[in-house]
Design a protein that fits this description.
The complex is a heterotetramer, with two copies of chain A (212 residues) and two copies of chain C (345 residues). Chain A is mostly helical and 212 residues long. Chain A has a single domain, classed as Alpha Horseshoe (Serine Threonine Protein Phosphatase 5, Tetratricopeptide repeat). Chain A has nine helices and two strands; from the N terminus they run E-H-H-H-H-H-E-H-H-H-H. A two-stranded antiparallel sheet of chain A has the order 1-2. The longest helix of chain A has 19 residues, at 103-121. Chain A is globular, with a radius of gyration of 16 Å. Chain C is α/β, with parallel strands linked by helices and 345 residues long. Chain C folds into two domains: 10-184, Dihydroxyacetone kinase, domain 1 (Rossmann fold, 3-Layer(aba) Sandwich); 185-324, 2-Layer Sandwich (Hypothetical Protein Tm841, Chain: A,domain 3). Chain C is built from eight helices and 14 strands. In chain C, the strands form three sheets. Chain C has a six-stranded mixed β-sheet with strand order 1-2-4-3-5-6, sandwiched between helices. In chain C, strands 9-8-7-12-10-11 form a six-stranded mixed β-sheet. In chain C, strands 13-14 form a two-stranded antiparallel sheet. Classes of the chains: A mainly alpha (212), C alpha/beta (345). At the C-D interface, helix 1, helix 6, strand 10, helix 7 and strand 11 of C face helix 1, helix 6, strand 10, helix 7 and strand 11 of D. Bound molecules: adenosine-5'-diphosphate (ADP) (2 copies) and magnesium ion (4 copies). One adenosine-5'-diphosphate (ADP) sits between chains A (30, 34-35, 37-38, 41, 78-80, 83, 117, 121-123, 129-131, 176-178, 191-194) and D (80-81, 108-109).
Chain lengths: 212, 212, 345, 345
Amino acid sequence: MSIEARDIVAWLRAAAAALEAQREQLIELDRAIGDGDHGANMDRGFKAAMQRVEALDTTDIGQILRTVAMALIATVGGAAGPLYGTFFMQMASQAAGKASLSPAEWAAALEAGLQGVMDRGRAQKGDKTMVDALAPGIEALKQALAEGADLAEALRRCAVAAEEGMRATIPLVARRGRASYLGERSAGHQDPGATSAYLILRAAAEALGAVP
Amino acid sequence: MSIEARDIVAWLRAAAAALEAQREQLIELDRAIGDGDHGANMDRGFKAAMQRVEALDTTDIGQILRTVAMALIATVGGAAGPLYGTFFMQMASQAAGKASLSPAEWAAALEAGLQGVMDRGRAQKGDKTMVDALAPGIEALKQALAEGADLAEALRRCAVAAEEGMRATIPLVARRGRASYLGERSAGHQDPGATSAYLILRAAAEALGAVP
Amino acid sequence: MKKLINDPQDVVREALEGMAAAHPDLIRVNMEPRYVVRADAPVQGKVAIVSGGGSGHEPMHGGFVGYGMLDAACPGEVFTSPTPDQMYEASKAVHGGAGVLHIVKNYSGDVMNFEMAADMVRAEGIQVESVVIDDDVAVENSTYTQGRRGVGTTVLAEKICGAAAEAGYDLRRVADLCRKVNGWGRSMGMALTPCTVPHVGTPSFELGENEMEIGIGIHGEPGRRREALRPADEIVEMLLEPILQDLPFRQGDDVLLFVNSMGGTPLIELYVAYRKAAQVLARHGIRVVRSLVGPYITSLEMAGMSITLLKMDDELVRLWDAPVLTPALKWGAAPAPAAGSGGAA
Amino acid sequence: MKKLINDPQDVVREALEGMAAAHPDLIRVNMEPRYVVRADAPVQGKVAIVSGGGSGHEPMHGGFVGYGMLDAACPGEVFTSPTPDQMYEASKAVHGGAGVLHIVKNYSGDVMNFEMAADMVRAEGIQVESVVIDDDVAVENSTYTQGRRGVGTTVLAEKICGAAAEAGYDLRRVADLCRKVNGWGRSMGMALTPCTVPHVGTPSFELGENEMEIGIGIHGEPGRRREALRPADEIVEMLLEPILQDLPFRQGDDVLLFVNSMGGTPLIELYVAYRKAAQVLARHGIRVVRSLVGPYITSLEMAGMSITLLKMDDELVRLWDAPVLTPALKWGAAPAPAAGSGGAA
Ligand SMILES: Nc1ncnc2c1ncn2[C@@H]1O[C@H](COP(=O)(O)OP(=O)(O)O)[C@@H](O)[C@H]1O
Ligand SMILES: Nc1ncnc2c1ncn2[C@@H]1O[C@H](COP(=O)(O)OP(=O)(O)O)[C@@H](O)[C@H]1O
Ligand SMILES: [Mg+2]
Ligand SMILES: [Mg+2]
Ligand SMILES: [Mg+2]
Ligand SMILES: [Mg+2]
């Protein structure tokens, strides 16, 4: 039960597909409390990332994730660009030189990514950002693995927790990012970044759930 | 049967009232083939003129008409300002120093006013301008007087002819003024200046029709 | 009608008061009758240049008053020609002994009011020349009609003649220069939206979500024709074609390319249009040697643009580059100790 | 969506091409990655000033590149922060040996991207200082949140710091000056209409015929609150009140008053607002010594305005008045032999 480079690519493909499919929804969410570009930014970024990833010929997971990070940094822009760029860059550091990851290594890489996002964005849980989906999702993943769940089950619980975290952003008043300028008016809307974060974690459950 | 200074003032009052009442219609007409200000311009101008006229204490018809001319020139602006200003200025020259006008003198003064308008605006009959109401109206007035009609009857025929002239502008393609920039598109609309000219001549029929 | 105004009747007066407050180093505003003069008027020995027209075209003309451009501007009501008393008083206020040039846009109202004013000024023994700008190729040129409207070339003529007056040209030469600029300039405009005259309160015309007006003037009047909205590149071709077909542009010519916003069109769109215009001119072998991009002759908040092409020679380039210090056009060093964008020192 | 554009995806690129074509005497445009640099970059021995942000705010920032203002500007997609590689390449392209100042508007995207870029530039051995502008009093200031947005003061900081760099201030002093300007500037904005991001195609929010948004930023986002439309004078009071309540303005202070169009509001309305703002300040005993009126930091075609007040001292006045030669702000005489509004000589 280990995650190979091709599984990572499958995950990224699934994430890119989900972000393309949800482009308009992310735009709508960002229109409500932001500037309406999150869907376009993420779709553009992941398309660029996938173009570069598909052109790679490597089994180095670190290199794959680093390629994604660089592509996102250079093409997403806005807040999500440096945040997701940092996320994948920190994952890449953890996976540098590795052709496969154990479930524990995979979880540790995600955790490093999360820490990178929180450092870069100076965001905490409850600030109504992508952290509110990433943190509970990754927490649930670790917990499940610690409880002896297999990867598929752990990823399922990760996605469920991320979705809950995403929904839990609705009543929050934003303290970081563009939505924070709205003050109280930001409450009552789901955070776009938490939504894209959930889509990315859910893509992992889809793509890696059947990993042998 | 002669026209006194107070009759002239009554005419001007009636004209001012008609222009105020038809302000919106003139604006609508000017919106269709011009810039939509004719009603506001004429109303503003005649209000200013009447304020100055009412403050006068004179029986000199020339002075009254000159006061109107100066007020229109200084407050109407646009094309109508210099045109109607010139109209009343030329009438004033004809009436200078006179406390009353015979019907023939009145017609001659109007004719001088018309000539002033045509010189100032370089406009001919058929150019789709105020000339198209003024010229037939004044022509009919002279004709009626020549045929021995009394002033009331002559003024009535003047108003009817002016109205016909005004309506006859509808199919015309404008050759002068702002409407000319529309080319063929100016056809099918009644000229705003011909309309205000008709209102002014009709006011004469109303106010002077009962002159003894 | 959504506007940042108070009583619609007060817009022109209040805007003039705002201009006076914002630019005391450059201009002074007279209220009875209304005109704007440069702060150091009259400039002795210099030909004085006076223009004017309806309000609603800002920055034209008041924003062009100052060193190297206009000596005075007369603002009428919105889209309504000013009156002869304004031009008469303004001309007297700026006359510095070398005569006055009236730059008049070809609208029957403007022409007639300026004619009356010129007569009044001449009656004071002051020399007056009048030049009528008629550069709008949207209107067919004919001696039987009113002729073409005066639009974008007016801005360029005021800048260039202002520099010539500053350089000591006498009245005859400044007037001849103005006629030369008028003869060498051609414009065409289009609108994406109408505009609303404040005291009217309703839009000047209606336009569907997928329609545009081609061949508009600057008074919110409808254009020559209505068409389906098209990409910017095609619109630029549609505007440039009649401009280029009209004399005097030929392969090898140098031109100034002026892409103007009607008011509501932002700079980012103007640059998209500028790019295409430059490409079209390059294709025709016409060299753009100077440019102007922005809202300079507008129709209130109307969205749309106009393109003006002015053939340039060495004299026009030199006068275009000469210093100018007005609220809206400003570059180079004026000999006077004035600087900054406004405010009392 | 009625805009003068071609494919919505191409707007930023095409506008940059237009800028490059219109102002070859002032700027050069790099396309991969996208940045605008002054034509004579790098200027040896001078602190280089780099800014940037989403597109759609034109003329900011590309229109402020040139002598006496920015050395480089990095445009992102519309309303989207540019990326670190742009800032990195731009900083290297303009570095003249005296370090680089990044002027960053306080949006999480801009801040984070500029942070990453600064790290990359420092890794090349180039000194970098970053100053974050956060002058928008519509947003409550708190260390627990993102803090205030950077708006109108950015324009003033770029002009003033550009002049200081030109005058030989070293990196530390230019950065300190920038922080001083940020500390002394306050802004507040409002919208009459939303705007439409080209590749989105629908307005950023809906607003009734009698509504306005108070406390907006510059990205088409809704403001702090929605209210019934009011006369301009009342709106000016509503914007100035929180500005004046915030430090540092006191009776007897000198200020620069900047009345800015959000894009679709024409000059005539800005002057109506300016007039009232000047009156309110006079009432408070605050002296307006400099002014700026026009569309300088915009949100596409949004109708509305912002007001910025900057406390001025002798240093700031001197640096404000110093020559500047950019596509959008231009006055005084630059030592370089550049003039005119654009075009190849
Ligand atoms: N400081 C931050 N820390 C963590 N996440 C943030 C921060 N700022 C913004 N975000 C996330 O980024 C999302 C917005 O991304 P996007 O719309 O692409 O950028 P922008 O706000 O610059 O337009 C928000 O919904 C939020 O989840
Ligand atoms: N050259 C002219 N000769 C005669 N009448 C003219 C001329 N130009 C315009 N008019 C008249 O003036 C009217 C328009 O007046 P008005 O709307 O007040 O002025 P403007 O066109 O300047 O807005 C037209 O309807 C027409 O009757
Ligand atoms: Mg966003
Ligand atoms: Mg009219
Ligand atoms: Mg008019
Ligand atoms: Mg954004």
